């Protein structure tokens, strides 16, 4: 039978760790912008101060443009960093959009000061389009956070295209067509052709190929380099190049189609990393933006938002905050389910769900649900699920970093991110994780638009059962295998849950639901009181990594 729920009243669904707050939330003070200091030696007058990571946006920037990724842009200056007392991550300098923030800001490109360890900061480069797609480069650059002054320059050339010649024509054969090839493996193949080739020589060839747009590079500092041959280099247009001190410049290209997407860049300046909880002190001077020197011997009257404030920091990784609320993102009237879902590591105890007891259903039963959904915010690697699951399996201990998502004994939908593509509306069948599938459907970005959706599982269709999913007017199908069908999976809950897979967050709301249940005629629902969990604020905002 089908149950209809419009959430005009609190349904009192079963809940577990879905509302978490901190018992000792810290107070923080954002305090950065223009001041008459002279820490870089080019003042008095510079931009700087203490900046905190926080999901509360904080920016100090000059209005410009609006520009897009079809425009040529550049900036340069001097920079000094001062290390915090503990390990931390930093902030961004670059071009961005003032209206849509979040972890990696929409319509932006810039560089960020990364993890500080042993008094040194790493750098990262990234961009994001106005449709929430992007890429990242991790150059092998780190500097001391001791107040010393450094030169930097950021350039974007919209007309640049990928080279058609390799620095060594043998590189494609050495890398092979596999994905994420370790540099050690590449070197073993290269030595067979060139016994005298050193590791340094090979590494420099690979870096040249990266800067030419021929390979994709993932660097885990102090651990390993992974390399891929770009699959569609002819479609890549627009190059971001970063210069820092005497380090060799590093470059990467926008992925196919990204340059032409609707991106609105209307600020240059400082924007905080909108995640977790740590701080850094910085000073910046000798700025030149798009060829024009910025005079800092007097107040430039840039626009500051949240840059000089003190507030209670009550958000942190694994602060699940979803369930019933009297909001109106997704439906016709106030009252819906949803909120903020964090991806949690499998050993993190703060994973949760909010769900209705539906009796007992299996893959022998026709199962369907439908309603309205609104995706309002999303951070990189964020996910959430709505569908049928087994409560015991959801709460069971899990061994293995990648064994938590998709959940065991789950059938339904997932809103899931892939940075280069954006979020996808995804069909999931996971009787057991090792025989599961996640079939991506239409791109689904956090654009705050209400959309109808439906999920239908027909055990009589296809070879072993078929899933059909619709979002707006776009539909797609996924067929089960015989092994999945015969797995014996059973479901006793329908609702919303966070993934047990390390990542960031999404804010998603759902309303006006219809869903399948199997209950006795005399069934009377059990009304569950919402439980609020208080936990100590984790160091740097995240306990499990």
Distance between the termini: 42 Å
Give me the number of helical elements. 5
What does the overall shape look like?
Answer: globular
**Which percent band covers the strand fraction?**
over 45%
State the low-pLDDT regions, or none: none
Main pleated sheet = 9 strands, antiparallel
Number of strands: 37
Return the domain count.
Answer: 3
Instruction: Assign a percent range to the helix content.
Output: under 10%
CATH architecture of the largest domain: Sandwich
Which CATH first-tier class of the largest domain would you pick?
Mainly Beta
Radius of gyration: 25 Å
Might you state the CATH topology name of the largest domain? Jelly Rolls
Based on secondary structure, the structural category is: mainly beta
Mean pLDDT value: 93
